[in-house]
Amino acid sequence: MEISSKENTQFFSNNTVLPVDRSSFKSESSASKEKQSCCGGIKIFLGALSFVYFAKALSGSYLKSTITQIERRFDIPSSLVGVIDGSFEIGNLLIIILVSYFGAKLHRPRIIGAGCLIMSAGTFLIAMPQFFMGRYRYERFPSTLNATVSISPCQQEKSQTPLSALEKSQAKINAGCEKEAGSSMWIYVLLGNLLRGIGETPIQPLGITYIDDYAIEENAALYIGCVQTVAIIGPIFGFLLGSLCAKLYVDIGFVDLDSVTITPKDVQWVGAWWLGYLIAGVISLLASIPFWFLPKHLLKPESRKDSSTSSEQSKFITEDNKDQHKSYQQQVKIAEMAKFLPSLKNLFGNPVYILYLCASIIQFNSLIGMVTYKPKYIEQQYGQTSSRTNFVIGLINIPAVAFGIFSGGLIMKKFRINVLGAAKLCLGSSFFGYLLLLSLFAMGCENSDVAGLTVSYHGTKRMTDYEQALFSECNSGCACSKNDWDPICGENGVTYVSACLAGCQASNGSGKNTVFFNCSCVGILESPSQSSSAVVGPCQKGNECPKMFLYFLVISVITSYTLSVGGTPGYILLLRCIKPHLKSFALGIYTLAIRVLAGIPAPVYFGVAIDTTCLKWGSKRCGGRGACRLYNSSALRYVYLGMTLVLGMVSIFFSVAVLWVLRKRSSPQDETFSANGERGTCGTKSREDSFVNKDHLIQTTYWPEKETRL
């Protein structure tokens, strides 16, 4: 009986379904076409936006890789380089409010395209000084410059130097003084980076909201995740590009490379820093093209038209009464403006939010300062070239950061960690990360033996750095300048600031192959009755330094991974500890605070502190202090790692306070919290709410400038 009933039902449905299919064929076909059109448009936008994220991440990381190159090229201290680095954040802050408010009401793809053009123009502007300030001049003794006249390094009498050679040398100095205005062209680098910040502003807020508005609900988080993944790949290529350009001489294509007497290991070496900016500018320019052909609006998928996750512009729209909707929108705007101050008071009255904000600001000061000057630290501490330093950072450190961020999100999902668990994970990540960083104090190299700076001319270690004695009895008969930096390496393994200060009486060869003979100061350590020779360039660091560098790399990678694991849980903690209607406002305040109180000042005061460890400053042609030529390795290690560690430990104290407040407000039965609007406590109403909503899934994996957090 049941079988016959099922057969009748099946027969009936088979007979009646055909007419329905025929009558609805056109509507289903049109819906399918609409879905395909929508998906096709959003995927094109997704590809274009991913390319833009790659372009901006590449140019930003390339700037980090050229910090030391810019410092040497323009003869400026580290503190000024820090100002240049922070100008990106300043440019971003100048228009972020205008773009965020008015951009959503205008043609978003074209605004992003215009931002890419501005970003490209800024990147090109950074490279322009190379073509206007003349060739790069480094300090070298005339005999190493392929000179035709043989000149004794130790000029005991002025008559030893032929008059024609002196006149030519003085003429070159005067010519250099006439072009000394070129040294102020670092301002163009600052302005270019400022433009980069302005152009980058609309990419994230307008691009992400465009995807969220027009993507199918279940695909929105996946699409945004793809964009953020590409943003992590960009810095890898940025540092690798920096490594490649650092190998090439700064004036490649303009001078005969055989006449260059310095090598990439020399502290005066400047790579083709400008070449990478031209490449990055072209990439940004190409990235802007697709956005000019994308529509202002895409067809909304059927699943989003009546969804609660649809954009705010379509939430209150009713086809029956648009006039009432407009008046209602105006009333809502007035009400929102009236509630701004109470919302601000409510936000800052939330102890968890304030404590986490303070912890983040201090931690980002630590991380931004550490990342900005990490290439300089590796070069000066371990004697590595700029090319190798950038290669190591790009190929090892950044993938560790990306894997750490991914691991943090995976742990949150795998173990379904609640708000209190996220706070614990964030605290544990910071604690163990900075604990590992503490071990780097023992993995440094000793100062190079430089006569008159780190050791005496008799080979004894100097106890103080400020009592520098470049002049000694062995070079007292030479007319030497203490401002020169043209290092040579003696047979005794000691570096001398110049051949003159080494007391060298003669030289043979030219360029990189120059050999100095009868160096009286070198002979002191060898034999009092015998003079010795020296070659061009500083001596290498100690034998233990390569091993220490290997240890540093291992600990650095583990530290980068450990610190990055806490990024995602921390962001979830931020989102879950505020009222739902204050999330956007809270995130805006959070981003603003990080940029103003960490992104701008951290590179500056880190640079000022690093400048205090300089032992030998270069001098400009017309007087004045140039870039640092030699740092005190021990002092640099304590200042660089010490500031990073102290700031990190202070942020941990705030993180502990966050955890204490959360524990205090938790219920004994369940460690999840319910959202209490009056008191601003953290919470989740249910197991589903305690986890991350789809529209926030990827936002939690993005923390400001994560691409360069090493």
TrEMBL record:
Chief location of this protein?
A: membrane
PROSITE patterns listed in its UniProt record: KAZAL_2, MFS
| A GO BP entry | sodium-independent organic anion transport
A single MF term (Gene Ontology): bile acid transmembrane transporter activity
Query: In the UniProt record, does the keyword Repeat occur?
Result: no
| Record-annotated Major facilitator superfamily (MFS) profile domain positions | 45-666
Gene Ontology cellular component list = basolateral plasma membrane
Localization: Cell membrane
Segment Disordered: which positions? 302-324
Looking at the UniProt entry, the stretches that span the membrane are 40-59, 80-104, 110-132, 220-250, 270-294, 353-371, 391-412, 419-443, 548-575, 587-610, 639-662
Q: Which UniProt key words apply to this protein?
A: Cell membrane, Disulfide bond, Glycoprotein, Ion transport, Lipid transport, Membrane, Transmembrane, Transmembrane helix, Transport
Membrane topology category? Multi-pass membrane protein
- Please give the InterPro entries that the UniProt record associates with this protein: Kazal_dom, Kazal_dom_sf, MFS_dom, MFS_trans_sf, OATP
Show where the Kazal-like domain sits. 468-523
Q: Which Gene3D superfamilies match?
A: 3.30.60.30, MFS general substrate transporter like domains
* Reaction it catalyzes: L-thyroxine(out) = L-thyroxine(in); 3,3',5'-triiodo-L-thyronine(out) = 3,3',5'-triiodo-L-thyronine(in); L-thyroxine sulfate(out) = L-thyroxine sulfate(in)
Q: Which family does it belong to?
A: Belongs to the organo anion transporter (TC 2.A.60) family.
Q: PANTHER family annotated for this entry?
A: ORGANIC ANION TRANSPORTER (PTHR11388), SOLUTE CARRIER ORGANIC ANION TRANSPORTER FAMILY MEMBER 1C1 (PTHR11388:SF99)
Q: Which protein is depicted? A: Solute carrier organic anion transporter family member
